Amino acid sequence: MDESFAAVEYVVHTIARTAVDNETYFGDLDAVVGDGDFGYSMARGFEIVLAGWDDIDRSDVGTFLKKIALTITGRIGGTSGPIWGTAFLRAGSVAGDRTAVTADDAVAMLRAAIEGIKARGQSDVGDKTLLDALVPAVDRLAAELAAGADGQRALDAAAMTARERAEATRELIAKRGRAAYTGERSIGTLDAGAVAVAVMAERVAGGWADHATPHTSSEEAP
Amino acid sequence: MDESFAAVEYVVHTIARTAVDNETYFGDLDAVVGDGDFGYSMARGFEIVLAGWDDIDRSDVGTFLKKIALTITGRIGGTSGPIWGTAFLRAGSVAGDRTAVTADDAVAMLRAAIEGIKARGQSDVGDKTLLDALVPAVDRLAAELAAGADGQRALDAAAMTARERAEATRELIAKRGRAAYTGERSIGTLDAGAVAVAVMAERVAGGWADHATPHTSSEEAP
Amino acid sequence: MKKFVNDPKRFVPEMLQGIALANPDTLRYVPDYNLIMRADAPRDDKVSIVQGSGSGHEPAHVMVVGKGMLDAACPGDVFSAPPMDYVLETSKLLNTPKGVLHLINNYTGDRMAFDMGRELAEAEGVTIRTVVVDDDVAVKDSTYTVGRRGVAGNFFVIKAVGAASEQGADLDELVRIGDKVNSVTRTMGMALTSCTPPAKGSPLFELGEDEMEMGVGIHGEPGRRREKLADANAIVDELLEAVVTDLPYERGDNVALMINGLGGTPISELYILYGRAHQQLADRGITVGRNYVGEYCTSLDMAGVSLTLVKLDDELVSLFAAPAEIAIRTF
Amino acid sequence: MKKFVNDPKRFVPEMLQGIALANPDTLRYVPDYNLIMRADAPRDDKVSIVQGSGSGHEPAHVMVVGKGMLDAACPGDVFSAPPMDYVLETSKLLNTPKGVLHLINNYTGDRMAFDMGRELAEAEGVTIRTVVVDDDVAVKDSTYTVGRRGVAGNFFVIKAVGAASEQGADLDELVRIGDKVNSVTRTMGMALTSCTPPAKGSPLFELGEDEMEMGVGIHGEPGRRREKLADANAIVDELLEAVVTDLPYERGDNVALMINGLGGTPISELYILYGRAHQQLADRGITVGRNYVGEYCTSLDMAGVSLTLVKLDDELVSLFAAPAEIAIRTF
Ligand SMILES: Nc1ncnc2c1ncn2[C@@H]1O[C@H](COP(=O)(O)OP(=O)(O)O)[C@@H](O)[C@H]1O
Ligand SMILES: Nc1ncnc2c1ncn2[C@@H]1O[C@H](COP(=O)(O)OP(=O)(O)O)[C@@H](O)[C@H]1O
Ligand SMILES: [Mg+2]
Ligand SMILES: [Mg+2]
Ligand SMILES: [Mg+2]
Ligand SMILES: [Mg+2]
C-alpha cells in the first residue's frame, strides 16, 4: 500500500479516536445551548468505525472513505450523521479509485467534503457550525501547501487556524442546529462542532510525524 | 358568663392559636418519618375555629366544645380530625350543660378526652403518639391539684411533664400513624402530636395569669 | 418549590375544578365536599362505588371516576384522609337502593374517617359495606399492628368491582370480589427522590445522589430501608423478589403485572423496568397475562416506582378486560 | 443521576424491548432499526404512517403506534434524529401500494435523515410523501431560518391522519389533512427544571430555585428567555397569550386544548393549569371543544408544560373523535 494511503488512514483514524475520546467534552459543549447529544452521537458512530477498522475495504481510497461514510450515516443520528457522512462520502468520490493521494488531492477532497456539508446542512460560514472552523482551516492548509510548506508545517498552521476560528464562534449567533433556537442567547458560547474540528486538526498535526506507523485495532485495546 | 367559662375559652383559644402559629413547625416534625401533613391539617381546622370564634354557641360549655368538635371533624382530615374531634366531643359530653367548670371538672373532661382518643385511635401510651405527652401531663395536673396546688402551679407542672415526655418520644418505636411504617427508623425522632401537646400546654400555662382577658377574633387580626 | 401552584391551600380544589371543566358531560363536582362523581350517579340499578383517600395520588382516585370504575371519589387534602363530613355527605349523595360500597386504603386516618362517616350515614338510612385494600408488602403485618398499607393495588380492586357493578352485581357480591382481588394482590414500591407537598414547599425527606429508599409508601413517608442506588435491573429484581415470595406467586401462575410510576418518573423508564420484570417472571415460570405500565397511584412528584402482581383467574381476567371510561382516558 | 437505567447506551433499546414485551399481539419490534410497528402493518388497503424523531419524548412516538394512530415509529437515540438507514429500512418494511406517509418534526437532523432516507427508498420503488410539523410559537420564523420547531402539536397531526387513513384516505388526502392540522395548531412550552439525558448523567442546563425557562423545546435545549418563577395562573396566561395571538385564535373559535406534561410534572398540576386555561379561553370567547390533559410529547424527566391549541372544524372534530388503540392505553 502506498504511504499516502497510510496517511489517509491515519487522518481518519485520528478523527475517529478523537470523537471517541471526547464524548463527554463534546457533549457538554453541545449542552450549553444545544441538546447535548453531539458527543454521544459522534462517539457511538466512530467507535463502530474503530471496532471494524482492520476489516474496512481498502481496495482504493474512494471505497475506504465511502465504507466509513456508510457506517456513519447508518449509526449516527441527529444532524451529525448526515453532515459527517456526507463529508466522508464526497471526499471519497473525489478520491475515486486512487490508491495514493497527493497533497493537492487531499485539499480537493476536503473542499468536496465542505461543499457536501454546506449542501446537506443548507449552511455556510458564519452560521456558527463546524464550517466556521473547517473552512478557514482548509483554506489555510491549501495556502501553506501552495506556498511550498511541507505537510507538518501546513497541518500545524491549519490546526492553529481551526482553533482560533473555533474560539471565535463565541461571537456568533447560531443560525443552524438545535442551538439556533436560543437565538441571541447563543452568543458567548462555543460551537461544539467547530471545537471538535479544532481538536481533530490539532491531533492530526500533532501525530503527523509518526503517521507512517500502522494503526491497527489491536493497538486500541485499553 | 362565669369566669371559669372564660378559662375554657382561653384554653381552647390557646390550643387553636398554637396550631395556627406552628403550622410549619408541626408539619416539619411530621415529615421526618411521617407524611408531613399534621401541621397543615391542624392549622386549616383551627383557623376556622378562630375565624368563627365570636359566633360559636356559648349556651353552655358542652355545646361550646361540641361545636368546636364539629368544625374539627368537618374540616380536618388525616388522623388528626377524628382524634382531636373526638377529644373535644368527649370533653364536651362531660361538661354537659355546665356554664362553669371546676378544677375537678377540668380533669374529668381531659380524662374523657384521653379515653376518646384511645378508643378512636386504638392506641395507648407507648405507641409514640400525642397520648405519650397528654396522659402523663393530665396525671400530673390532677396530682398537683389534689395536692392543693393553685391553677398556675398545676399548669406549670403539667406543661413541664408534657415537654419531658414529648422529648422522651424519641426513644419510642412508632406503632400508630403514618410514622409506624418506618418501624425501627422512627427511633430517635420526636412525635409531632406529642410535641404539639407540649407546646400547647406551655402556652396555656404561660398565659394563664392573664386568661381573664376576653379573647375576640378582632384581636387576632395581624 | 418547582411546582405549578397558585395558593397551596387551593391546590386540591383547583385541581378538582380543572377536572370538572375538562369533563363537563360525564362528571359532577361538589366543591363543599371535594366530591367528584359521575354525572349519571346514583343509579337505582347499581351499587355506588366510592373511594376516598388523601390527595396527591392522582390519577387515584378523582381521575378514575367513570363508567366501569368509581362512581365517586372524595379526597382529602394532600396526604390527608378526607374529613369525616365529606364521607358522610358523599355517602348520602351516592345512596341507591342497592347500597354504597366504600373502598378504602388501610391507613388509620382513612379508616377513622370512613368508620365515622359510615356510622352517621347508616343512621340516616344508607346501606354501606366496606372493602379495605392492604397490598403493600413493605409493611409487615406482625410487627406493626396498623397492618399493611393500601397502595397501587387499589386500582385492581376498583377495576374489578367497577366492572362487576356495571354488570349488576349486588353489594355482597362486590365485597366478595373486592376482598378476593385484594387477597391476591401484592405491591412493593421504592423511590429515587422524595416528593414535595405544595403546602410544605420542600421535600419530605432528603436522599443523597447515590441513595434510594426501598419500601416507600405513597405519602412520601420514608421506606423501610435506605440503600445505595442500584441499576434498573437490580431494582426490579429486589421488588419482584419481595412481591413474588409474599403471596407467594408460583410457577404456572397467570398474573397481571403493573409498573406504576410515582409521579416524577418518565414512561420511558417505566418500560425499561417492565421489560426486566416481564422477563424475570418468565424465568420463574409465571406468565404475564395482562400488563399495566404508567401512572396509577402516585406520590405527587416523587421519582420512583411500584411493582404490583395480581394472581389471575377466569373471573378476574374477564372483569379486568371489561370496558371503562375515565376522566384521564385522553387519547 | 436519579434514573431507572442500566447501561445508558442501552436506554432506547431496553425501552423498546419493554414496549414489545408489553404488546406482543399488537406490535412488532425490529431491533436493528429501533423500529416499533403494528403487527398487522403494512396493509395493502392503507397508507402506512411513519414518524421518526429522537427518543426521550415518550409516549411520542413509539407508544402511539396502533390502530388509528401510527403504523410505525423509528426513533433515534435520546434527542437525536434516527440515522438515515433506519428511515430507509422502515420505509421499505412499511411499503404498501397506497404509499407511505412520513411525519417529521421540523428539526435539521430529522429533515436530513428523512430527506436522505426517502430519496433512497424512492429509488427502491417506495412512494413517499411528507408532512412537516412546526407548531412551536416560541421560535420566530423570520429571525432564525431553520423555522419553527415541531413539538406537542404532532399528536394532533398523527391523530387526524391516523383516523383518516383507517377510513381509507389516500396519500394526497393525508398530506392535505396533515398540513391542515399543522396550519391551525400552535404550541408554547416552558420548564421549571432541566432534564437529564441518561448518557450525559447530569442536567442539560441549570435553573435556579426561583427561575423558569419560557419557550423551551422538547430536547432540553434552553428556551428563549429565563424568567422569575411565577405562579400557575401567570404561567398559563403567558403561554396562552403567545399561542392565541399567533394564529390568531379568535372569539367564536372552537378549539382543542392540550395541556402536555414534559415528563416530570404530576397530572394533578396539569389539571390546575387546565382549569385556568379553559377559563381564560372562555373569557376570550373561545370554546374548548375537546381537551387533552396528560403527557403526549415529553422531554425525559423535565418538570414543565406545553400548551397547544388546535382550531377545530367539522372534519377535525370527527377525526379527533375517531377510535384509536395504542400501546399506552392502559386502563
Ligand atoms: N445545518 C448545519 N450545517 C452544518 N453543521 C451543522 C448544522 N447544524 C448543526 N451543525 C453542527 O453540528 C453540531 C451539532 O450536532 P448535533 O448535536 O448532532 O446536532 P443537533 O443540533 O441536531 O443536536 C453543531 O455544533 C454544529 O457544528
Ligand atoms: N392511632 C392514633 N392514636 C392516637 N394518636 C395518633 C394515632 N395516629 C397518629 N396519632 C397522632 O397524630 C399525629 C399525626 O397526625 P396526622 O399527621 O394528622 O396523621 P397521619 O399519620 O394520618 O398523617 C402523630 O404525630 C400522633 O401523635
Ligand atoms: Mg445536538
Ligand atoms: Mg401525618
Ligand atoms: Mg396524613
Ligand atoms: Mg440532537
TrEMBL record, chains A, B:
The keyword Kinase applies. GO terms for cellular component: cytosol. This is Dihydroxyacetone kinase subunit L. PANTHER family: TRIOKINASE/FMN CYCLASE, TRIOKINASE_FMN CYCLASE. Gene3D superfamilies: 1.25.40.340. The gene is dhaL. GO terms for molecular function: glycerone kinase activity. GO terms for biological process: glycerol catabolic process. Coiled coil: none annotated. Pfam families: Dak2 (PF02734). Transmembrane segments: none annotated. Keywords: Kinase, Transferase. The keyword Membrane does not apply. Residues 6-206 form the DhaL domain.
Automatic annotation (TrEMBL), chains C, D:
Pfam families: Dak1 (PF02733). One of its GO terms (cellular component) is cytosol. Keywords: ATP-binding, Kinase, Nucleotide-binding, Transferase. InterPro entries: DhaK_1 (IPR012736), DhaK_dom (IPR004006), Dihydroxyacetone_Kinase (IPR050861). The keyword Ubl conjugation does not apply. Residues 7-331 form the DhaK domain. PANTHER family: TRIOKINASE/FMN CYCLASE, TRIOKINASE_FMN CYCLASE. This is Dihydroxyacetone kinase subunit DhaK. It comes from Jiangella anatolica. The gene is dhaK.
